[in-house]
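Risk register update: the risk that structure generation would not scale has been downgraded. Supporting records follow, first protein first.
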Amino acid sequence: MSALLEIKNLHVSVGETEILKGLNLSISAGEVHAIMGPNGSGKSTLSYVLAGRDGYEITQGDILLNGVSLAEMNPEDRAIAGLFLAFQYPLEIPGVTNMTFLKTSVNAVRRGRGEDEMDAASFLRFVRDKAKALRLDDDMLKRPLNVGFSGGEKKRNEILQMSVLEPTMAILDETDSGLDIDALKTVAEGVSAMRDAQRGMLVITHYQRLLDYIKPDIVHILAGGQIVKTGSPELALELEKSGYADYIGEVVA
């Protein structure tokens, strides 16, 4: 079976500094992978490169989604192709309501895929159903995007975005950052509800606690810009006890 997401010998630089140094990763449809690593290992760089953020230069290697290279695609085309990134720090957009942002995003993706746009009434029913599962009320849908939201509300709102966009490949960049245990459980429930045989997920995290709620199939350790070890979910539990010291310095020059 061919991979849904395949990263081949990926080298990425920011300015003169190489951050990813030959990263290889393959995720099949239906799988949830987790990447863990110490600060500075390249975790956020990986998420930014996957999403197409400016300033991150691929100097070698490739990223394939359903066999198609993402390397030269802009972020909008990557979203149309089925990629979604949940940010570690979701952006605030004053003057744009949450509902307007969601409807505009969904219809932009639908247009890009040659599908009919959703009218206002149909979308309202659609998004309310999705929001209810994440405990987001109508008031939050009417407010400016993420403005005045708590950390937990911002993260739940991003999972709502993922839910309405229905990507084939979801990247969650330290989604647990800043969440209390109740918000973490709600976010994890929303993520877990989207697991299915057609969708892949990559969970990037520093701590094991998120993986108590989002159960990964495979865990990878990223250090020095490379994946230095891959294993079962028990690998995350080992890291919680021993830390990353044993893996720092294992990078192949």
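Supporting record for the second protein:
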Amino acid sequence: MIDTFQRNINYLRISVTDRCNLRCVYCMPPEGVKQTPHWEILSLEEFGRVVDAASDIGIRKVRITGGEPLVRKNIIDLFRYIAANPLIDDISITTNGILFADMAADLKKAGLNRVNFSLDSLNPQNFKDITRLGKFEDVWRGINKAIELDLHPVKLNVVAVRGVNDQEFTDFARLSREMPLHIRFIELMPIGECNPWAVGNFISANEIMTRLREEFGPMQAEIKVTGSGPAKYFRLPGAKGTIGFITAISEHFCGTCNRLRLTANGQLRPCLYANKEFDLKTPLRNGADRQELANLIVRAIRQKPQQHHMDQGWTDRRVMSQIGG
């Protein structure tokens, strides 16, 4: 569906849970966040009904997120449900990778097309410091499993944080040369837990690019990587993978934004950084049919803002895991 700013809205990100098995320093406090009661979270069937309705008005791509989506019980059933919809042509997941290796084959069989791993360090100790709970070896095993199962393109999402992982940028770039991985450096956004210190720890994509050029020389621009979204991609000479940059702060991409977000508790959010949400849970539980749900989604699309206003500060009391990555 085309919105009021002539953008084709064809992509739905679904947060299936606000729970996570890590406590990344820029996302959550050490003790975690108050969990939403189970009965307030949409059931897998309810998520499926939203996807069906959304597909009727032009949604063709679905990404499953969290929290950490793989902690959601019976999550593979949702992949099967979505894959059965002939209008959906791409199903992906963003995961921290801790549980992925053991579930990967079943996920692919259920309909998963590709996977993004959130990975901010290649150093096991630094990884543990950033995540507070995780083991790098578990994620690395998952990444290799994704490659083995041909879930391409396999992407690594790296949130760039000064003084935390900026010393590893060249290591990530080398990884793209050695393996068929697509490294995506994401500018730190002032959201939730990281809001108070985002300015002091912020590194622009331009600075990262400058560092990499100093180390490796010129990089070749890539036209397209499947599911590239807002990232701009480059390739080192002879590299098997690519290096991408997501410039949410320094050069916003709102003019081409094609997505909606559905929170775990059934709120449809047209823009990550705008507080306006549309309640789908209440109509779902009051018996709304497919057409009624589709009409509500159309209403949300028509009110999608022209651009975000991150410069005005984060006013939502929730953290990223509670909204959906």
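The longest strand covers residues 154-160. On this basis the risk owner (M.S.) recommends closing the item.
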